[in-house]
């Protein structure tokens, strides 16, 4: 992996909440163009890592580098401007506004005024929820809200897209559609780091995987390598 | 942006038409009464802007109201040049805005939000009331002006533009025109790029940060705008009565705008305007038998509003009117303007 190709790097990153080491001495490199998965059981520290990448949590120690730049002390909004965008685990959409209004809030900040409408339309088309544009977001299904939030993250024109459990709570058909969408975004050149613990979903998508356990990096490699790693199988996949 | 035909806008047009012809219909005393009510509307609008639009709950609008009122008094009395009174008004509004910006900067960049903003601003109001209350005595002179303790400052000059002194009807129309300008600005602001970001902050602050918005900056900016509006209210109050006392910072000054805006409809500037005027009119009407009755009734209205119409009495009436007359069924906070005009 050449140094230039590394888009995101966590160096010895840790986050302690009092005596609890939620994340401890994590080193992760995500290559530009990668489709990388953070895998691990509940409480492994996956979402905490995402929050440190976004600047929601400040690491207790270690540094976060984006595009070779140390962003550890940057505010969330500055990181978004640099090209990091996130879809959180629980949908962070504006429930009392329409789909269009939600998208407009996201799009208007990164798009020239005259192009806002066409950009919103383009993204809604991409997400296949254009028909819902006048619908109140509270009336959407969970899956549709997740797609909308992915759309809002895309409106920030990210280089790196963080997706925290993008298919959580979705049925098989919606999950397939989400996987297809993520693959499509990655092919368009967006580096994607996502969290999931559905191994079937991860296998469909990820090229590289980092397995976390109890806040520490447990293993890393391609999906095939992870699948055949006996220790991972033991601690995570629940096979004896 | 085309003005949308709905109950609120029709009511707003009717209210302003009524205000414009009001001096023709009534005596000079009633005109000055309405000028006072309209002066207090700016205070409600300032809260509507920061709380209704942006979700910043503040008891501190009385701070800017009082500070700017006192500033105008001290500035104009010290200058002794009546033609400088417009400068006093402009500087007073700017100072209110700047103080609000500084206070907002430390709160919002320091991560203080929600109920804690209410607590800090309430404390500040009461501290200033106590401080100003003890400023009796010659040691509390600013230039030639004695701050006057509980008695406050009297004989503050009216606004004079060139050789024209604004009193009576001319003062009324001056306040009305500024109110109309502020009102139109706020209606425009609601659907401007910044206004939409402000609504997003109210609905979900953390999410808005993750969409690339510098939330503390926008909060500070809106808080400063609210401070400037409250300052305008304070200076108009001074111009109306030609006096100011520390009660400008009192508990009633701090809380009544909150109650008015909450009961009328905090997310709706027309509702805040209408309810404020109605309250002060009602309060004046009852003043012969003790204005406390108005406060009791206001309290009851607030309880009813919170229990049954949390979006505010007037705002809910507007909504019902829209459903009845305009078949508008959207519950969107931006009232479905989104798809077409946003």
UniProtKB/TrEMBL annotation, chain A:
<keyword id="KW-0067">ATP-binding</keyword>
<dbReference type="InterPro" id="IPR003593">
    <property type="entry name" value="AAA+_ATPase"/>
</dbReference>
<protein>
    <submittedName>
        <fullName>ABC transporter ATP-binding protein</fullName>
    </submittedName>
</protein>
<dbReference type="GO" id="GO:0005524">
    <property type="term" value="F:ATP binding"/>
</dbReference>
<dbReference type="InterPro" id="IPR051120">
    <property type="entry name" value="ABC_AA/LPS_Transport"/>
</dbReference>
<feature type="domain" description="ABC transporter">
    <location>
        <begin position="8"/>
        <end position="239"/>
    </location>
</feature>
<keyword id="KW-0813">Transport</keyword>
<dbReference type="GO" id="GO:0016887">
    <property type="term" value="F:ATP hydrolysis activity"/>
</dbReference>
<dbReference type="GO" id="GO:0005886">
    <property type="term" value="C:plasma membrane"/>
</dbReference>
<dbReference type="Pfam" id="PF00005">
    <property type="entry name" value="ABC_tran"/>
</dbReference>
<dbReference type="InterPro" id="IPR003439">
    <property type="entry name" value="ABC_transporter-like_ATP-bd"/>
</dbReference>
<dbReference type="InterPro" id="IPR027417">
    <property type="entry name" value="P-loop_NTPase"/>
</dbReference>
<keyword id="KW-0547">Nucleotide-binding</keyword>
